Structure formats: structure tokens, C-alpha cells
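#lab-general

N.A. 3:47 PM
ok so I finally got the sequence cleaned up, no stray characters, all 152 residues accounted for. can someone with queue access submit it? mine expired

B.Y. 3:52 PM
send it over

N.A. 3:53 PM
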Amino acid sequence: VSTPQSACRTPRGLSSGRRLQSASAVPRHICLSGSAIKQTTVGDAAEKLETGWTYLDVRTVEEFEEQRVPGAINVPVFVRGPGGMEPNPNFATAALEAIPKTASQVLVGCKSGQRSQAAIQQLSSVGCDFEMENVDGGIMAWAQAQLPLESK
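B.Y. 4:20 PM
back already:
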């Protein structure tokens, strides 16, 4: 089931090249609420990749190296810290740097679809100029559907 999605706009402080000037210069706002995050199935996601969408995988580096969607970009939304998993304080900046400047549509995925929703909310809170969809079920659903995967 898909839910409506608002397109993000580039706020002042975020250049059209999607590079953050500074965290304090970026207005904090949410252009997507949790209920407005568009969900896409793995089958639809695979088709969208064929039409030029970018795949942002927000799992840990270790998870990403184990198996990943071909051509995916990895920027972890959470990292391992001394107390376990912690939010990646550099996630939004790193993701906006890693996503190609020409990308206008981005699929965001993780293991099951939960971290990717958090990632979409974070990217939305700092502003973005691309359409984002959450890959429902993440890499687990992708593997279950026997869609192509790469590994180390």
C-alpha cells in the first residue's frame, strides 16, 4: 500500500548540489512525516532501478559488504558505538555527499525497512531535492524475492 509523498524542497543553507553548508545553517523542518513516507515493494524497486533510480542502503558497512543490491550506495544511518548501535551523527551530510548530484529519485533500503524510514525522515529534516521511497521489507524481502544481489 502506497501513501502520498510530498516532494522535498531545497531550503536556504543547502546548495542545489545538495552539500550542507553547516548543520546550524540548515533550517530544521520535516517535509515528510512518518505517515507520508511512500513505500515501494522490492519488485517495484527493482523495476525503478532499471529506469535510473538510485539505491541508498543505510545498513552497517558489515551488513552491506555481506550482501547488497547491485549498484547500491552505502551510508549507515546507525553505527556501532561503545554502547551498541548509535545514530550516525554524520548520516545526512554523508548521504547527501554520496548520492549522485544528478539523482532525482532515491530508493532507501535497509535490512527490513525500519532504519530506512528513519533515514528518510532525517534526510527530509535537513531538506532534499529528490523524491524518496522506502523499500518495504528491505534486503530480507529482496533476497526472498530472489532478486539480484552482490556480495564481497
